[in-house]
User: Fold this.
Amino acid sequence: MSNEVDISENELLEAHPSVFQKLLFDHTTRKNIFWATDSYVDLGEGYQPHDEITIPKITGEHGLVLRPRAIKSREEQTKRSRDMAEVFTSSWTCNAQNNLVDDAWFGRKHVFNTEMTDAEGNHTWIPTEGKIVFPEGDKEKTWQKYVSSNVIEVTCGEGPYLVSRYDTVTGEPIPVKKRIGLLDRKLRIVSENTETTGDWLKQAQKAFMATYGFEWQGDNLLLAREAMFFSFIDYFKDKFDKLPSEASMEYIAYIISWNLWQMDGLKGVVPDSCKNGVKKTVADLFGAHEETIHCEGCEKNDILRHNGIYCLVREWGHRDPKTKENNRKTRFIDLIKP
Assistant:
């Protein structure tokens, strides 16, 4: 199953039910992520935009409801681009832009691969052979620093900048050795610099903790989470020729459920959670009357003043000075505000 482009939710449920539930969970609302799209409304109850995505709605006879964009019909792709401003990015474009990030980090070009155009005029790339070399004598440019450096894909969709299990143009699987996502690169480095499963898992967990993304539409978010999860399996199996333990898979799924979250990127809140222009009945000494709720953030375009549900993220490796909790929770907007 881990080598397939279209991950089977039925097989995921059968093999890893606890992982499946973790991949559906939203830590801000303490509920499942929700559809946040009208692409499935014709399927009836449970598929409306504000309905949670539940296991029964995407398994069993509904096991083919979720599909990556690359294998959706052309009509459906066009509709989602038009209605939800869903942007398609080719894998070679993701690679070229990720290469620019690494060019700056390493101070040289062609670290992970060399971009090229084949005889048919198709953009592609050739992976760099051998172990990746890090700048000598620079304590801030070690392989461990690279693995733990934070990266984020905003409005991530299916996460093509993070993991590249398949070509977003052709839908064809991409071999592990040729993958180009930001997390793919971290996991390559982990595999090249560790020998035991224990060391590999420790560093892989750090790689996942340092890889973030957010997305509005729940179906895309789940597909991105699944892609990250199965990338973990792919790289472990490629290194050790076996599957990781169930406990390891569950912990990675837990990290993913925190680091890829559902959010309105312009407001920093759960999509459609702001109340603006909504009427409510208020009772006081003079009786009941209607009041209109106003969201100052929406009205003034101020990200710090929304009355919606602000999204939480984990700061892995940081301790909360008040609660003494490790890997403290914080609002995403508190990490980006000036």
Notes: The chain has eleven helices and eleven strands. Residues 88 and 335 are 28 Å apart (CA to CA). The longest strand covers residues 312-319. The mean pLDDT is 92.
